[in-house]
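Q: what does this look like with nicotinamide-adenine-dinucleotide bound?
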Amino acid sequence: MGTLLAGKVGVVTGSGRGIGRGIALALAREGAKVVVNDVGCDLGGRGTDADPAAAVCKEIAALGSEAVPSYDSVADFTAAGNIIKTALDAWGRCDVLVNNAGIIRDRAIVNMSEEEFDAVIAVHLKGGWNCCRHALPVMKEQKFGRVINIVSSAGLRGNFGQSNYGAAKAGLMGLTFVIAVEFMKGNAEGKYSITANALAPAGMTRMVGTIPGMEGRPVPPEMNPELNGPIVAFLASDRAAHVNGQVFGRRGYAYTLFQTPKPLAALYKEGGMSAEEIARNFDAAFTEHLSVPGIPQTAAMKQAQAAAAAKK
Ligand SMILES: NC(=O)c1ccc[n+]([C@@H]2O[C@H](COP(=O)([O-])OP(=O)(O)OC[C@H]3O[C@@H](n4cnc5c(N)ncnc54)[C@H](O)[C@@H]3O)[C@@H](O)[C@H]2O)c1
């Protein structure tokens, strides 16, 4: 067992399955005690089942570390408080918070219901904020804390049929930047070792299993959801004290660092410009820099989608 997180207590939401399970195990492998939070719902957020969280606690015990289950929903403010309280009741600390719990209800925006939008925002964005709101005062008291928010390329770049999910994940990224700024050295709360970072993970989980072309496919080793765990364990550790407000990615065996949006080009005229002046000068200033929205598709992804479309 590693020692990167010896003495630390972590809370991983939605860690009864998939990517969250891999993260909970990775924290435990580095010596952390872990609250395995999971309501045990279906992919759309319906139903509850205690088994997934309990099963991961058993796996952590088998590794030689400690874990306690939590079945509260991140989407409810008071229940989210109970998730953090579970860590305090068990071990008196909460050093690491990984906001990972998630659901999807995909549909093209012209057909999406308000309920489908609200349900997804409630878990990813409000749920992330809820847990941060309860954990950060504890972290401040301890003068140590690490928040890792699990985001997605759907929010970084856009993805068809995911206006609820993409908006929630982009919001979670914005939340990450704001927490990072509030606790950054030189700012009001900067005297504490508290950081917030984001990770856009990847893994063949039930969430990905519903994407057209992915159903029933065997899991290639580079799509193992456990591969996301080590970078989260690093970001949670003392060794990552200098890493704050960054967005990382994981694809295959590569960990990537995303560029934070920054101005690429500018149109300038003293006193401002009219719409007509912008129209006249736009192409010369901006067109070569315009990006194509959406997640860049690999040849394999295009092939899988074409095969799925041909089947319909
Ligand atoms: N799988 C991928 O490739 C991928 C890519 C990008 C982002 N993500 C993100 O990674 C995270 C984990 O996804 P996954 O693929 O492991 O999915 P998953 O469905 O296997 O796991 C999500 C878990 O969250 C739990 N959960 C849902 N709502 C909850 C709530 N209100 N409170 C507590 N727990 C709740 C579920 O019961 C489930 O066990 C999500 O935030 C997802 O958006 C996944």
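The beta strands are 9-13, 33-37, 67-70, 96-99, 144-150, 193-200, 247-251, 254-257. Residues 13-14, 16-20, 37-41, 43, 45, 52, 73-75, 100-103, 123, 127, 150, 152, 200-203, 205-208, 225 surround nicotinamide-adenine-dinucleotide (CB under 6 Å).
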